[in-house]
Every structure is written in C-alpha cells, then in structure tokens.
Amino acid sequence: MSAPRTFLAQRTTRAASAGPRVHTGSGLFARVGVGLKPEHFRDVLEMRPDIGFFEVHAENYMVDGGPFHHFLGRIREHYPLSLHGVGLSIGAEGPLDEAHLDRLAALIKRYQPASFSEHLAWSSHGGVFLNDLLPVPYDRATLDRVCEHVDRVQERLERQMLLENPSTYLEFEASTMDEAAFLTEVIHRTGCGLLLDVNNVHVSCVNHGRDALAYIDNLPLATVGEIHLAGFATDRDAAGAPLLIDSHGAPVDEVVWGLYAAVLARTGPMPTLLERDNDVPGLETLLAESQRAEDLMPALDDPGHCGIHWGCS
Amino acid sequence: MTQALFAAALLAPDLPCPAGLRAWNGSDPSARLAVYRNNVVSSLIDAMADTFPVTQELVGEEFFRAMASVFVRQHPPRSRVLAHYGGEFAEFVEGFEPARTVPYLADVARLERARVLAYHAADADPMTAEMLGVAMSSGEDLGALQWVCHPSASVVVSAHAIVSLWAAHQGDADLSDVDSAVPESALVVRPGLDVLVTRLPPGASRFITALQSGAGLADASVLAAGEAADFDLPNVLALLMGHGALISVQFSGSRSP
Questions:
Q1: Which residues of B touch A238 (CB under 8 A)?
Q2: Separation of first and last alpha carbons in chain B
C-alpha cells in the first residue's frame, strides 16, 4: 500500500458574495450550498441567490451536449461547484472503470470544481449498474481494495477526493472493524478527505444500534472537507426496530440538525450541502432550509478555530 | 458473500437473502435487504417513468410501473449514465403480452426515447439561410451536395399516429380526434435548448436517413421518391431548415461553405 500523500486543495477563485471567507481543505468556502436540480436552472440564473456553492451529480453531466451543460456552464460562471460522483463504485470487488474516470477527468477539466467527492460504496457489478450505493464489509481485503481505488482516483484526477460515509441497512458477518475505524484507515493511507454526511451518520447509527456522537468522535474530523445534510424516511425492520431510509426526499430532521450543530462545534465552519433529490420543492424553499444551516455556522470571529485560517481571496 | 451474489439477489426478488449478512438486533436481514432491492428497482422504474411519460399516461401509472419492473430486472442498465438507459424498452414493450392491446405503445416509447437522446446530444449551430444560398448558387452539382444533419436529429417511423398521440399528451391536440391507425413518422431534433417533434410528410423519413448515412441530395431524393411518389423535395428541405435539422452542406471531397 502506498504511503500517505498530500494533495494541494483546489482553490476557488471567487465566492458568490463579498465578505470574509473561510478556506477549507476541500477548496470550497465554509458556506452552505444546495444541490443543483434541472428544475431550478432558470430560477438560479434569474434569482442569483446568495449561496456558497452548488453541487451536481457528475453522472448527470456525462452527456455530449444539451441544456444540462448549457445551464451548468452559465451557473458555474457565478458560483463555486462541488462535483459529486454516484457511479464510480469505489467499493467494487472489480477494478475501477477507467472510462468512467476519463469522463470524470473531462468534467473536472471543463468545470473546474472546487471539490470532487464519491462514496464508500459500490454500485456496479459485472457490467451492470445497479443505481444504488451498496454496502461493503469492513475487513482487511476490502480496506486494501478501497485504498487502491482511492489512490487511483486521486492519481487520475490529479487532486484530493473526499470520501463520503454511507447510509447502510445491513452489516456483514465478515466485518472485522467498525465503520469509523475503516474510514479513518482509508483516509490515513490515501490522503483523501472526509465528506461527513450527518444524515447518513444518523441513519446508519439508528439502523445498527450505534451512538451517533461516539461514531462522530471516532472519525478523523480534521480531514472533513464538506458536510452533507438531507432528509430520511422511516421504516421498520423484521423485529419492528426503526429502519431509516436515506431518501433525500424530505426536509432535514431535527435530530440531524442537532448532530450538525455538534459537528460544527468540533470542526468549526464547514462547507455544507443541503441535499434534496426526490420530491424536490421550489428553489426558495430549499434556500430557506439552507439558511438554517448557515445560521448554525459558529460565529466567524475566531480565526484560529480548529486550524482553519481566514480566506485570502 | 460476494458482490455477484448480492447483485443477483437485488434483481431477483425470489432469490433468498445471501448468507453472511446480519442485523445488530438479530432480526431477519432479508427485511433489510428489501430496502436495497426496492432502492434499485424503484429508482430504475422512476428513471423509466421520467424518460417515457406519455407511454406511462397511455397505459396508466400502475400498468406502466408493473411493466417497467419486469423490464428493469430483465434489462438492468449497462451504463453508469442513466441518460443512456432504456434503449431496449420499446422492443421489450412490443413483446410484452399484456400490452398487445395498445399496438402503438412501443412506437410512442421509441419517440420518447428519441427525445431524450436529442436532449442530451451534441450541440451544433443550425445552417443559416445564407449558408444555404451560398451552396445553391455555387455552381457545383447540386445533386452531389452532401447535407449534414444536426447531431441530435433522428426519425421515428411508425404505422401508427405517434406524433398526434404524443402531441395530444402535451395539450397540443384533443386525444379523441386522433385516429391512431394513421401512419406517422416523426422528426426529432434539438437545434437549441428545446427538443422539437414534427410529423414528416411522405418520403421524408427515408430522405433524412439517407442523408444521415452519407447519401448526396440526388440519391437521397431518388430513395425517398421510391418510397413515396409524392415526395416533395423543396417542401422537405424547407421543413428541415425550419427546424434547424441541417447544420452544413459539403461538396463531395471538400468542406464548404
């Protein structure tokens, strides 16, 4: 396994609005962003909301032309961008899809995102794409493979990536370490950063009977480059225990808001994405919800807080 | 517990839950696997519903989702880019016994799939009237001119009134006025940001596909006239120009204008 490597963070060249900015390891400013949905393209350009960044799913833009590229190009002129992959299948047993990496590299070259992130999960097997983020066992063999894959991604894309903690519904008898230890080891070995999805923390901890704050405190929080917030749905397992589903189809839950505040207290201000992929409301509703996250950011009056320095743009 | 077994179980609801999975509270893991099974199949059905909204309206949501659930298990995506998904759907619909009573359904699905492909196709500026004029007055053999179609352009040929049926579901016409047994062919093209769907006159679909395979104007016209005696070349050229379906004209062996 290769030694830990350091990647220079990509710096955004402009922020969406004037004022002091906090740079973070991901290259995004410590502000709140929202997922960019096609139904909001025109509203974004007309309203030009004061928001920290937009995030897109990379695979939606792996097309030759058309309105997606037209609008993303125009919106990118005014906002920093976070490129979030959902199809790289970093946790796959098989090798990474080099053609997919090429497509990611082309998107990064074209749109110069401040951050690229992917998931600790797999989504393809045997040439079939399953369109879901599927769980991996936390054992040595998987650890070695995931590290090889993250190494390859960072080498091919010539930048640090952020790896997102997953929402999971099952555990594996083969697992020999817990999720936080697994993530910590991947981050230590590869030099990637952590995309801390606070909703996923809550969902997985409820689904597996863990304590969310203990889980968070076992993560390498100094490597967090971005936080995700989203909503979940509630189901029951075979024993009647709550089983939370990472639906991205509801407002952020109060419990998740509480965890988010606890995370910010530990990390200081962080680029934070409000994710909404299903039952997407109007842009103004999303912006109002995102404002709550911005309001929770600790007061930016302590430049030395958690080692994050004042922006110099 | 390999990913092959896990993947197979996701797409086959009758397969038992793979061994090696567990839940913290000792509950039956198959109830938890069901979340993944539902995520995979439902999200793919949702993707199909996004691509084929009129197909869904024609048979109703319940029928469509049942049909699509069979399709997504038989033809899961081979691409990680979902915009490419659904290419086999129209053929699947043709062979789907419960849909036999709706003979035009597969061709409406073809039309909707063509729209999605056009939406995401490469961009190109349509040929202008000035460019056309230059070519026409160049003194070159007009019959040998090769007309280059827009990269988003395609035709869908049908024995059914697919354009009228589709248009009725956009609120552009009254469905009760549509005689579905009238053959119609569609031009689908996206010259700017919007995808255009147009009913083609007789012979035009043959003419366009001939151009797309590199035939010159004369050869393409002969092929079109062979299919439809009343093929009207000036009318069809005007239609193609009017819809931004041509991007350039070149003389064999050289690029111009």
A1: 23, 27-28, 30-32
A2: 62
Q: Give B83's contacts in chain A (Cβ within 8 Å).
A: 60, 62-63
Domain membership of residue B111 (yes or no) is no
Nearest to A127 among B78, B119, B193 (CB): B78
Q: Give pLDDT tens digits for A53-98.
A: 999 999 999 999 999 999 999 999 999 999 999 999 999 999 999 9
> Do A128 and B7 count as a contact with CB atoms less than 8 A apart?
yes
pLDDT tens-place string over residues A30-48: 999 999 999 999 999 999 9
Domain boundaries, chain A: 32-307
pLDDT tens readout for residues B24-68: 999 999 999 999 999 999 999 999 999 999 999 999 999 999 999
**Are A123 and A133 spatial neighbours (Cβ–Cβ below 8 Å)?**
yes
Class of domain A32-307: alpha beta
The predicted complex's ipTM stands at: 0.94
The per-residue pLDDT for range A126-144, each reduced to its tens digit, is 999 999 999 999 999 999 9
- Is the Cβ pair A173, B28 closer than 8 Å? no
Q: Give the gap in angstroms from C-alpha B180 to the nearest C-alpha of chain A.
A: 31
Same domain, yes or no: B128 and B96: no
Mutate which of B80, B120, B150, B193 to disrupt the A interface (most A C-beta within 10 Å)?
Answer: B80
Gap from A64 CA to chain B (nearest CA, Å): 5
Q: Which of B126, B123, B124 is nearest to B241 (CA)?
A: B126
Number of domain units in chain B: 2
pTM (two decimals):
0.91
Sort out which chain A residues have CB atoms less than 8 A from B6's CB and list them: 125, 134
3-state helix, strand, coil in chain B (%, to 5): 50, 10, 40
Q: Are residues B51 and B93 in the same domain?
A: yes
Are B95 and B220 found together in one domain?
no
